[in-house]
């Protein structure tokens, strides 16, 4: 219970950290736009964008469309169709009689 509490509440913490970073950069007269527009950052951004578009995105798309999509949706449809048939064919009296404890008199 304590661990769950420690893992929650990160949104406000991130906002505070963001404000502190912006205030620190402003204090030292560091312009965020000059950092973003610099040639090294633009080169890294361009490289990252190229790798994402040409390698990562197509791989993820292939895995989703050809492997995971069919696997997940076939199993979900199969599960719910079996559950629907199973619910209609259940005899509730047999379930109650086998799960109800016998009280000795």
Description:
The chain has 105 residues and is mainly α. The protein has one domain. The chain is 83% helix and 0% strand.
Structure described in brief:
The chain has one domain.
Itemize the secondary structure elements and their pairings.
Elements: H1 2-7, H2 10-27, H3 32-36, H4 39-88, H5 92-99
What is the succession of H and E elements? HHHHH
- Termini separation comes to 43 Å
Overall helicity: over 70%
Count of DSSP strands? 0
Low-confidence stretches: none
Features:
single chain, 105 residues, mainly alpha, 5 helices, 83% helix
């Amino acid at each position: 219970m304590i661990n769950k509490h420690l893992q929650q509440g990160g949104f406000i913490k991130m906002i505070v950290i963001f404000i502190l970073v912006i205030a620190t950069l402003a204090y030292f007269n560091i312009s965020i736009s000059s950092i973003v527009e610099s040639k090294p950052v633009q080169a890294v951004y361009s490289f990252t964008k190229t790798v994402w578009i040409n390698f990562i995105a197509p791989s993820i798309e292939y895995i989703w469309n050809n492997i995971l999509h069919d696997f997940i949706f076939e199993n979900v449809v199969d599960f719910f169709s079996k559950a629907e048939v199973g619910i209609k064919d259940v005899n509730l009296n047999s379930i109650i009689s086998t799960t109800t404890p016998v009280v000795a008199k």
